[in-house]
Amino acid sequence: MLTSLLIYTLVSLFPPGHASLPIVINTWPFKNATFTAWSVLQAGGSVLDAVEQGCARCEVEQCDGSVGYGGSPDESGETTLDAMIMNGDTMEVGAVADLRRIKNAIGVARAVMELTDHTLLAGESASVFAENMGFIAEDLTTNKSVNIFSQWLKGNCQPNYRKNVSPDPSRSCGPYRPRTTAPPRGQQGRRTRPANTCSHDTIGMIVLDENGHIAAGTSTNGLTHKVPGRVGDSPIMGAGAYADGSAGGAAATGDGDLMMRFLPSYLAVELMRAGADPSAACEAAISRIKRHYSEFFGAIICANTTGHYGAACNKVSGFTQFHFMVSNSETDAPVLKSVDCF
Question: Which of 136, 201, 253, 311 is most buried, by CB atoms within 10 Å?
């Protein structure tokens, strides 16, 4: 009864807009990625083809420095990649995390889905798998990523994502060891830092064709200055993205370490399954995280099976509006959309 009342309230507050299929929707103003995915659909390609090639376009173009090679070096100066692709009709998923040496992360994710019985491969073994499947091994480092890393070292490795270690991570580089004495009560948690909209984001994409077939995917190089081996939300199904042919799809972007704890993409899809409009579902998913982490940086896009779409974001200093791209039969071209954060 309470769930029905919640859905009724959400739908009343956020009435659905005009639906249109097919549709491509992706996070951030990555217009070329949208155009590529839309062109694939128009040429008769599948929704999986569209998601893969749309995300791959961002990997090649190094969208915003947060996707593809040459961005977001970790503590050792290396760029590693995460990606995921999901078939909402069969519920098959392929994902890679901490991928090294391979530029086409979304392509490797699809290979995991189609050439193995597994869902997620990680680390060096994922890279070896990719090479065995014919993907070319290349250096992911660029002059830009080397410069980012060197400047970080000169700045005493600030910011970083260590806590409760010695030497003091807020002042010094590592190597770090656990503290021999416990921190003062109330200070055991993660050090607070302002939201940085450039240090962690992703391309997340949802595609539906004219027959309602749906797929979703993500690709990212993760969090700048991350601890080596860190995996964020992007390759985790239900966190970075999710798709279900009977309900819709969603994709998230932002502080993956926090957002993945709440499976926002899965939550949004389940709310749409229960009848919520995509905008309402997106807002509810953001609100769930906001209840625990009011200052988190993040946003989410949603689309249901009829082509209605929406988005939502958490309002913090420096991030008051979220931009995303849409292409459908009404526009027949990528259109920049925005939503005010709350």
Answer: 253
- Tokens representing 268 are 């949004």
d(CA 196, CA 254): 9
Secondary structure class of 13 (helix, strand, coil)? helix
The catalytic residues are 202
- Tokens linked to 153: 């070292």
Q: Which residues are CB-contacts of 154 (< 8 A; sequence separation ≥ 6)?
A: none
Select from 79, 53, 82, 86 the least CA-distant residue to 220: 82
Q: What single DSSP character describes residue 319?
A: B
pLDDT digits (tens, 9 = 90+) for 251-260: 999 999 999 9
Q: Which letter, b or e, does each residue of 174-204 get, where b requires 16 or more Cβ atoms within 10 Å of its Cβ?
A: eebeeeeeeeeeeeeeeeeeebebebbbbbb
Burial of 6 (C-beta count, 10 Å sphere; 0-12/13-18/19+) = middle
Do 287 and 13 touch, CB atoms closer than 8 A? no
CA angle 306, 111, 267 (to 5 degrees): 40
* Residue 112: other Cβ atoms inside 10 A: 26
Q: What is the mean pLDDT of residues 102-129?
A: 98
User: What would the DSSP string read from start to end of 165-219?
Assistant: EES-TTT-----EE-SSPPPTT--SPPP----TTTS--EEEEEE-TT--EEEEEE
Q: Strands 120-122, 92-99: parallel, antiparallel or unpaired by DSSP? A: parallel
Triad 293, 296, 298: Cα angle to 5°: 130
Per-residue model confidence as pLDDT tens digits over 9-65: 444 344 444 578 999 999 999 999 999 999 999 999 999 999 999 999 999 999 988
Mean pLDDT, residues 287-305: 97
